[in-house]
Specification:
Blueprint: H1 38-63, H2 70-73, H3 77-92, H4 98-105, H5 107-110, H6 112-117, H7 133-158, H8 165-179, H9 185-202, H10 211-244
Helix pairs in contact: 1-3, 7-8, 7-10, 8-9, 9-10
């Protein structure tokens, strides 16, 4: 199946409508490496584009107090361009059908609207279907956490004074706390052990960390980068078990 994490934010191809008129564009960015062939990577993007357009139509129809079936949703004119793109991508990836493509790559779990549509077209779509929105929020938190750690490393390696380090370490701690779980426990404990010491230095008239203290900060960053892949893998496993029931 697809190995990696997909973060739908901002990257992709523009879709073209009838008579080559531009339609609303859906962008997809792959936040972490996806170790698959290019054709399967394009399939991920096509799925993201199609599901986004379908969900937009669901919201529009909900305002009209309509509860459409999946077969009706996929017959709407607004959906035809991304649907055609999806089917073309399935063929390019050497699959005989959309269902085969979704099941082989396990994208039916990540894109539940597509999964239910190509298995049971008469299913009524509701927002009760499990989605990956909460998982994408976790990825956003981890991304910001990594950015903070990289800023910390820059501070201790390139700045002569370290007045902001304690504040940045405190932010790292808060984001670890936000993630929660047993995976982050050791790093949090490591920060707790020396935070007051670091804070005292950064609030002094000479806010310069010693070599040992800078090594400790660098270790915090390293530990964060080590723990997050394990954390993500566990969260994905928990999510898939929840979806499977």
């Amino acid at each position: 199946g697809v190995s990696g994490i997909v973060h739908m934010v901002a990257y992709g191809r523009a879709l073209r409508g009838v008579h080559n008129r531009p339609t609303q564009t859906v962008f997809v960015r792959l936040e972490m490496p996806v170790k698959v062939t290019l054709s399967k990577l394009e399939l991920v993007c096509a799925c993201a584009q199609l599901q986004t357009v379908v969900e937009r139509e669901v919201m529009r129809l909900a305002r009209l107090n309509q509860e459409p079936t999946n077969s009706y949703l996929f017959s709407l004119p607004e959906v035809q361009v991304p649907l055609e793109n999806f089917r073309s991508t399935v063929t390019s990836a050497h699959y005989d059908s959309p269902r085969e493509a979704l099941e082989d790559t396990h994208l039916e779990y990540m894109f539940p609207v597509l999964g239910t549509t190509f298995c049971d077209p008469d299913t009524v779509y509701r927002d009760e279907t499990p989605t990956w929105d909460d998982h994408l929020k976790i990825l956003a938190t981890i991304h910001y956490l990594h950015c903070l750690c990289d800023v910390l490393l820059y501070e201790i390696e390139h700045q002569p004074r370290h007045k902001l380090v304690a504040h940045q370490v405190a932010l790292v701690y808060q984001f670890l706390k936000k993630l929660g779980g047993r995976d982050v426990r050791d790093v949090k404990h490591c920060i707790e052990q020396r935070f007051d010491e670091i804070k005292k230095i950064t609030e002094s008239d000479n806010p310069v960390l010693t070599a040992d203290q800078k090594a400790w900060v660098a270790k915090i960053r390293e530990e964060v980068h080590i723990l997050t892949p394990k954390y993500i893998a566990r969260k994905i496993g928990d999510r898939l078990r929840k979806i499977a029931g």
